[in-house]
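Researcher: I'd like a structural prediction for the single chain below. Treat it as a standalone chain; there are no partners to consider.
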Amino acid sequence: MQRPKRIRVKNESGRIQSLPEGKEYFQDLGGTGRTLLLGLGPVPESATELLPEPGRIYYVESPDFEKQIELNNLPKSFTRITPEEMGSGHGFHIFLYTPGKKLFPSFWGPIISKLVLERSGVTAGKRSKTAWLPGTENSLLLPELSRALNSAGFRYRVIAPDAMRNDLLSMLDRELPELVISVNFNGLDASGETYFMLREAGVKTVVWMVDNPFHIISGIRSEYWKQVPLMVTDHWFIPHLKQLGACRVEHLPLATDPAIFNPGAKPYPGLSGRTVFVGRSGFPDKKTFFSGCSFSDRDLADAVSAIQTGTKPDFEWWCAHDGLVDFWPDSAVRKTGFRAEQSGLLWRTTALRQAGERLTLFGDDGWKDHLPTADLRGPVDYYTVLPSVYAGAGLNLNMTSPLLPYGLTQRNFDVWAAGGILISDRTPGFSIFPAEITGECTFSSPDEIPALCDKFLSFPSLAKTLSKIWLRLIMEKHTYEHRLNNILNFIH
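Model: Treating it as a single chain, here is the predicted structure.
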């Protein structure tokens, strides 16, 4: 016996999905009064089986669903209303077509969140000057943001991401925070339920994307991210995100935390006169994230040729090389990103070789495959040992990840804050600093590194003067307290 063919629709991220049918897919959300369906499903008439007796049925439906499904033949007992006419749901007995939440989450999320919050009474609670930080105590930037919030007079709470996604309603019942700062969408689910619940509760939420934004949103299959206030460390992505429909996006570079990086660090011994680089050969779980992506011999040859002609094969370069124009929801962006990541390893290795025999490298064993004769030390702890390394090095070397074509790294702030000297590859991200000082310590091509190193090691007074200028600039304008002020101004 042939199974009946299911009706299929294109969901909001462009994927084709089947519509399950039957009254078992309608969830009774309770209430009294007129019958209201949140979503009709493929066979609206089946919803009448839910009713104890025939009568008028009101319904709310997603416009994207209505464009794809013929609804002209609905029984006369069905009456369409808008979400505004539905209001908070009072006076209705409500049934939800549950698959609709995953098909068109950006439409249903706000409606369901408003309904749930109205019935819970959560929003009647008193709001406190508290900020939630999804993650763990040692998650990316959480220690720095925690200290900045404390200095700004906020109480802060680090919230486990799973708790944010699974227990949000009960958490809001205990405490109504003023804001949530999520790094890289940490704590927010892929469909947007968490964000919509926070928004409907009046909690200001901002996402700070400190990695390649298209890699971050590649795991989101809902358009809800376009409604979230976004901040990016690399302003190259801003026009591209806006073109995709992002409503609010602003540039927010990284910074330093003076509680960790300051001139009081005791210099790490044995690094005087050495050119030091601290960094991994690749980021954690790289193979898993880029599973199925390739970097061919042709790609390698193209990247090598670019570097030899003084061009950094970064994400922007690879987008043009690959002809990539669809950044979301197509997963092709990760394939281009992988090529940029592999080019980054090549770029860093080429630059490190230019440091010559004076190079000392703090990092993982993966560097042995690329720099087998280098003075390789083990990894160092960011919060305890790293400030001493920066302070004790003759010179510190920085190469920015090609995944962020206009970006800066923590080194661009932390090294100077620790009283060290930094030479760095030049990116448009340096536009936040005065050109007269960035020109003294940046390079466009790795073959410029030896001359830069010789300049600072031969003229220590120049290095000392430049270090003082940078230190004052970083502390006056580029700490995480400054960045928190930017965040607060952005969301208010």
